[in-house]
Amino acid sequence: MAETPAGTPAETPAGTPAGVPAPLRGNRDYRRLLVAGLVSQTGDWAISTGLAFHVYQLTGSTLSTAIMLVVSRLPDVLLGSVAGMLADRWDRRRLLVVTDLLLALGLLPLLAVRDPAQMWIVYAVALWTGVLSTVLVPAQKALLPQVVAGSQLVRANALHGQSGQLARLLGAMLGGVAVSAGGLPAVVLVDVASFVVSAALQAAVRTPGRPARSMSAGGQWISGLRLAMGNAGVRVLVAYMVITGLGEGIFATLAAPFVADVLGGGGDAYGLFLSVQAVGGLLGGLVVAARPGGASPRALLGWGTIVFGTVDLALFAYPLALPALGPGLGFELGSALWPALVLIVLAGVPAAAAMAGFTTLAQTVTADDRRGGVIGLLGSAQAATALAGMAAAGVLGGALGIVPTLCLHALGLAAAGGMVLLTWRHA
After folding, report:
1. Separation in Å, CA 77 to CA 283, 376, 383, 388
2. CB neighbours (10 Å) of residue 263?
3. Among 56, 90, 267, 389, which residue's CB has the most CB atoms within a 10 Å radius?
4. What are the pLDDT digits (tens) for 125-170?
5. What residue range is the signal peptide (predicted)?
6. Residue 27 gets which letter from DSSP?
């Protein structure tokens, strides 16, 4: 079969999902990557949901769950740049396949966990999977431009983001069902199977050869840091990740108090509040992928983030008006959840557009042989500032209040989007 230089077959295979734009429908390698990501991320959400529930049942301690989460996130902070360097130094397809298989093997010790004294196994597995996941992300994102034409990169990234939201919906439900039906072993086996399937799909991906890197690993890492300091576009993206990472940490910390103390909801309302944002993400991915002309990555990132921040500001501020408007409109504080659900779905649409724009800019701001390092650096910046945001939320939430602190996060999003629009043209 004749193929274009970008690796996209000239004919469209039968049975391809109708929602995928035609140039991507014909690209078998892209479809394999898309399905592999959906499968592995579904498994990840399943085990993160099921394991957190199982750990709490096993220990009765929220501290144990918190330790597990922190241990799994630390590699993102400490190793992101190094992991990105590996994606530039080694063959990315092989790196993905090997990492998936190592992740599958690394989960098997969880099958031995039976009592609280064995929690060290959970922590060790969380660290192992955290390190390997840090390697996985830059390799996945850096590989995509090797199999997708530049003109289709925004759409491809939008669909990848959409698959992540779908995995969030499916995986959370699957994890809850699996842990209820078969306990921790059932959840572990689901995730192991997802990584094996993902490895098989990625092993079949055909990628153009890349020249071997002659520079030492240490020299490449130092060179990558110099690139970040010297590339104006990279500096803009790092600043964006610092601002939005702080906001992510604030939201992660204060979302539950917002639902419980401000909206008067319970645990079921909190779960619904978090899950429905994925619906907006799915819609946003479809909108970006379906646009015939498509917007520029800069416009998607800048305006998408501004709109995202504006909707978030409405989401966090509307409860302040309820005491005055409530009696006239039939509102009571405890029944004020539905506007929050509508607004968080709406927020997911521009958030998906912004993420597609961000990923595309990160993939194209530098040459192929530096792409993984840039993506890894951006991941480290986000992870580090998210942890700082969590700490800041604990202080500001008490000093300023839950709603004002969340509104600061929303204003930060709008400011980050404006920064991109004002500065990227000069990058």
Report:
1. 31, 10, 5, 11
2. 23
3. 389
4. 888 888 888 888 888 888 888 888 777 778 777 777 777 778 877 8
5. none
6. -
